[in-house]
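U., I forgot to send this yesterday:
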Amino acid sequence: MPPPEAGEHPAQAKAEPRRRASELLLDLARAWPAERISVGELLAALGDRGYGLVMLALALPNLIPVPIPGLSGVLGTPIILLALMMLAGYPEPVLPRFIRDRSFPRAGFEAVMLRAEPWLQWLERFTRPGTLRLPNRAVEIPAALLIAVNAVLLALPIPFGNPAPALAIVLTSVALIEADRRLFLASILVMLAAIAIDLAIVLAIIGLGRAVAELL
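Result:
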């Protein structure tokens, strides 16, 4: 083993390069031994890495168009609870048993991660890790509130309503994982825009329903 370079601390020479979220999630999906993954198992595998990575894993399948029936209902509710726990100041994510027992196919999760990996890697190239001070309640409170609202919209059966809140949660999760101030501020704007988009869809559906009712 070559000696560390001059001026380099031995611990720094031995330190492994920091693994990005895209690599961690794809490796997890590929190495999973069972045919299904429960929310609780996913939480156990990723929970020690904080809220950001768990919410990213739960939000990505709602953004990437891989047909997994009922997925938004399975994964939307845990995101709501995780956001509320972040809002309450829980240091680590914890979920009730009936949520932890919900599961989805491992093959579908791997397909999502395979399709998401190049996009996540592209996003990660532009991040500036460490520019956002965490933990920080001034950051976590507004993020948790907006994530909770977007997760509610994600869990509701709104036609064409999943992509906007899913994208918003993905961006916010990456911002929290990387502690990137610029991406975090952008994600706040995207979360607000996603709420506006889904509300517009709901209002349009209500208006269309009233118009049809008047014609009958």
